[in-house]
Automatic annotation (TrEMBL):
Residues 532-715 form the Peptidase M28 domain. Residues 78-92, 160-170 have a biased composition (Acidic residues). Residues 783-908 form the Transferrin receptor-like dimerisation domain. This is Uncharacterized protein. CDD domains: M28_PSMA_like, PA_GCPII_like. Residues 345-432 form the PA domain. Residues 1-94, 153-174 are annotated as: Disordered. It comes from Xylaria bambusicola. The chain crosses the membrane at residues 190-211.
């Protein structure tokens, strides 16, 4: 409890000016009254001494209010008065008028007059200046100084000595000393002068804060945020997504075939460009590249069974699908393989299941000679990548490869085929690319640099990205005849090799099988022009930082599911964001919509963009969201960097599925679904694995569809795929919410904690994989994975330390009533940049770095597998070198990977 001595005592009333300056006549002639003696000062209360010292007068008060002899009241010169700076005294009338003028001015400023008896006890600065006084019509502040009396230098007042010289014979005039003029200011003048100086300082300080510091930008940003409440923006985006608009866009984009680089592809490119312009985006651009593409010739493809002497065909495959596009669609695309090798070859037919290396090894183990033969393999299965099927056949000695869709994998065995169902019909052909995207991605003639006019290019026989045997895709109706003709040749395969083609007795075939001819003549264009289209909404806080949304436009045929369900959704979301921006809204970070070309061949358009802008993306791209085969079922799937787990969960909780009558998050939990790993089959590959941009791929999936065939058209989508376009609309909502969270949240909603947890899981998977090979642990240990484990421990600690700052920031902003100080804002921007940079810091950027022999891919955690033969594609470089059994090199790669991970952890929290 406070003592009595320390309790507060109110200060005495402040004296009037006359009271404060009262004294004898002689005191007015002194430069300043002397301070009282120490004994006198000690006899007065401290608060009385302090109150009087404010008036710079320490003598006892004279309460008689008598004006001292020779005293003249100070006055302030008005704008009306002349200012002759005279030494003559003013008349009494002038004193009265000037005193009244001072009081009027002080009343206008709402400063209480210290000369007023009624306010004698009130401090002249206790009353606030009303903001209503700042309206222009009432503003009467006059910027002028108080009137001052200037004492000019003059001779001595002793006139008796005017005519006499001094002892040294010097005249009085020469002894006159000139002194610097003194200003005679009263305390009231000083108060007014100080007040106006303070006001001027406040104005200049305000100007500095608004225009020199970043407060003005922060104010603009916050005004923008106040005008557009974040929750209202989210609701606007969700409500504005129009399924009918998506339907009409899909109808248009599937109305004719649009293979990459063709006239149809260019027409749709211009449609996307015009749509972005119509949306009112801040920037819209067309980006052209010159890349290697091949096109089928009408009569250039043949698959025939030859007579016994090998001279005449006894059967020819139909090859082409039934015409399902209609007259208005133009000619549907021929059945062929992108980036296939031309050739005309003959050889005995041998069936090799799914075409994996293990499948070809089994044939060799059975004593079946595959040299010079034609391979027949089926889609899907243990080797999903069609290019690696053909490559494995080439390595096994085959001279040609035929790939078909088996009904056991995607056909009548599983359900109703298209056009009445979801599965591949008997004439359906699954097209695809056979460029080795796991080895070389993008334009295979410019691996590692962009395919611009004038840049160097490889020759077709120099690249590692192409196979060297011809191949063709066929329907199962053609495969049925081929399988029937090898009955009795070779070995009867195991049950797992037997597909669903009816009326077939399964045999492998051998070197004595019937001879098959495979012919593939095509048009090769090593500099085919393609077109990427970009549209951008500029951010107001960090324009250089981007959230990128991408979808490829080209298709093997009509492409209702792949890719144009994603195209239609992206265009609708872009339209809604354009409408929002048209109302004056702007995100904190830039939003970029990108329509890629030539993805179906080898992810060319997106890869060339990444290679052209690699350094910028590594520093400025915060996230990439990919759409491809967006709608083929009703189950939501998301694959991506561990960064996105928390954000995906949050967004799914806001989107309601009217068919299931639940939120997408509830359905997600019921399926025990989680964020999946990215593969290597769409445009996210270059962003994630080359540029280190955290990437996410979203879709509604779960059921088969007539993939890459002419049956994947608008009629199928409207009748089977998504009849009411409900899931197109739902994915549009999900995409819009993901964008707004990433682009407009002050703190990036990325999940570094989940990244640390996932890295530990990836390490366990790597250890178990190596343990099965018998190369870690025990006496026969070949390598040590401990350096990676230690680096991951460092990552965990750094992320824990790093994530403590966000709660601190939130508390600071809340404490400031929602306002963020400029310095704190700069720290937040740095926090966001560090968070996003963690992914790009996991790149191996040394000269010649990356996955050995596949140096385009730089990420030490993620990347395409060499052969797609294990489930999880984590630590691809480490796995590659372990497969070579070069143990010194393997340990060097392990140590290097650990060093890069350790650096990422250090950079995250570096001061």
């Amino acid at each position: 409890m406070p003592s009595e001595k320390s309790r507060y005592e109110p200060a005495p009333p402040i004296p009037s000016y006359e009271e404060a300056t009262a004294g004898d006549a002689s005191s007015s002639r002194l430069p300043w009254p002397p301070s009282p003696s120490p004994s006198a000062a000690d006899t007065r209360p401290d608060h009385e001494t302090e109150a009087q010292s404010l008036l710079r007068h320490n003598r006892p008060l004279n309460l008689s209010r008598r004006t001292p002899a020779g005293y003249q009241p100070p006055h302030v010169e008005t704008d009306d008065e002349g200012s002759d700076w005279s030494l003559e005294d003013d008349s009494d009338d002038n004193h009265v008028s000037e005193a009244a003028q001072v009081r009027r001015e002080m009343q206008e400023l709402e400063i209480e007059d210290p000369l007023s008896d009624s306010n004698a006890s009130t401090s002249p600065w206790t009353k606030r200046i009303s903001f209503s006084r700042f309206s222009l019509p009432r503003w009467k502040w006059r910027w002028r100084l108080p009137r001052m009396t200037v004492r000019l230098p003059r001779q001595s007042d002793n006139t008796n000595n005017d005519d006499n010289d001094d002892e040294n014979g010097e005249s009085n005039e020469t002894r006159t000393r000139w002194r610097f003029p003194k200003l005679a200011l009263s305390s009231r003048d000083v108060v007014l002068l100080i007040g106006r100086l303070l006001a001027l300082t406040a104005v200049l300080g305000t100007v500095y804060l608004l225009f020199v510091s970043d407060l003005f930008a922060n104010m603009s940003k916050r005004l923008n945020n106040q005008m557009y409440d974040p929750e209202a923006v989210r609701e606007f985006l969700q409500l504005k997504i129009d399924s009918e608009q998506i339907r009409e866009s899909l109808r248009h984009f599937t109305s004719y075939a649009h293979l990459a680089g063709t006239e149809g592809d260019y027409a749709l490119a211009m449609d996307v460009h015009n749509s972005f312009v119509k949306n009112g985006f801040d920037q819209v651009a067309v980006d052209e590249y010159y890349v290697y593409l091949n096109y089928p010739q009408k009569n250039g493809r043949l698959i025939e069974i030859m007579s016994a002497d090998g001279k005449k065909p006894i059967w020819s495959a139909i090859l082409e699908e039934n015409d399902v596009g209609g007259e208005s669609a133009g000619h549907q695309t021929y059945a062929f393989h992108g980036h296939s090798m031309p050739g005309d070859v003959k050889g005995p037919l041998i069936y090799a299941n799914y075409g994996s290396r293990k499948d070809f090894k089994r044939l060799a183990d059975q004593g079946i000679d595959t040299k010079g033969a034609i391979a027949l393999v089926r889609h899907h299965g243990t080797q999903q990548n069609v290019a690696l099927k053909v490559k494995a056949a080439e390595m096994a000695g085959f001279v040609g490869c035929i790939v078909y869709s088996d009904p056991a994998d995607n056909g009548f065995v599983k359900g109703e085929p298209a056009p009445k169902g979801r599965l591949m019909p008997s004439d359906g052909v699954e097209r695809g690319s056979v460029s080795l995207s796991n080895w070389v991605i993008g334009d295979v003639l410019t691996p590692g640099w962009e395919s611009k006019e004038g840049n160097p290019r490889m020759k077709l026989d120099q690249t590692k990205g192409l196979v060297h045997i011809p191949s063709l895709p066929i329907a199962w109706r053609d495969a049925q005849v081929l399988l029937q003709h090898i009955e009795g040749f070779g070995e009867q395969p195991p049950k797992g090799w037997r597909g669903g083609v009816p009326e077939v007795k399964w045999w492998t075939g051998n070197s004595s099988s019937p001879i098959v001819r495979l012919k593939n003549e095509q048009d090769d264009n090593e500099k085919q022009k393609i077109w990427n289209i970009y549209g951008k909404i500029d951010g107001i806080e960090q324009e250089e930082k981007s959230i990128i949304i991408g979808n490829h436009r080209d298709a093997w045929s009509f492409g209702a599911t792949e890719p144009n369900s994603g195209t239609a959704i992206m265009l609708e979301v872009a339209r809604v964001f354009g409408e929002l921006a048209g109302k004056g809204w702007r995100p904190l970070r830039s939003i970029e919509f990108m329509s890629w070309d030539a993805e179906e061949y080898n992810m060319i358009g997106s890869t060339e963009f990444v290679e052209k802008n690699l350094e910028i993306l590594q520093k400025q791209a915060f996230a990439y969201i990919n759409l491809d085969g967006a709608i083929s079922g009703q189950d939501f799937h998301a694959a991506g960097s561990p960064m996105f787990r928390k954000l995906v969960n949050k967004v799914l909780g806001r989107v309601f599925d009217p068919v299931a009558n639940e939120t997408l998050f509830t359905l997600w939990q019921d399926r025990k679904a989680d964020l999946e790993s990215l593969g290597s089959e769409s445009d996210y590959v270059a962003f994630q694995d080359i540029a280190g941009t955290s990437s996410l791929d979203i879709r509604f999936d779960g059921k088969p569809h007539p993939r890459h065939s002419s049956y994947d058209n608008f009629q199928w989508m409207e009748s089977i795929g998504d009849r009411d376009f409900v899931y197109h609309g739902l994915l549009g909502q999900v995409l819009a919410l993901l964008i707004i969270e990433l682009a407009d949240r002050p703190v990036l909603p990325l999940d570094l904690g989940n990244y640390a947890f996932s890295l530990d899981r990836y390490y366990v998977d790597l250890w178990q994989w190596a343990e099965k090979k018998g190369i870690v642990g025990g006496e026969n240990r070949k390598i040590k994975l401990d350096p990676i484990k230690e680096a991951l421990n460092h990552v965990r600690k750094s992320i824990t330390q790093f994530e403590r700052w966000e709660p601190y920031w939130e508390q600071a902003v809340i404490a400031a009533n929602g306002w963020e100080p400029a310095g704190l804002g700069l720290r937040r921007l740095d926090y966001n940049s560090r968070m996003a940079a963690f992914e790009s810091d996991l790149l191996d950027l040394e000269i010649g770095g990356g996955i050995p022999n596949r140096t385009q891919f730089k990420h030490v955690i993620f990347g395409p597998q060499l052969w797609n033969e294990y489930k999880d594609p984590y630590f691809p470089a480490v796995r590659d070198v372990i497969e070579t059994q070069d143990w010194p090199l393997a340990q060097a790669i392990i140590d290097k990977t650990a060093k890069i991970i350790d650096y990422a952890a250090t950079a995250l929290v570096a001061v």
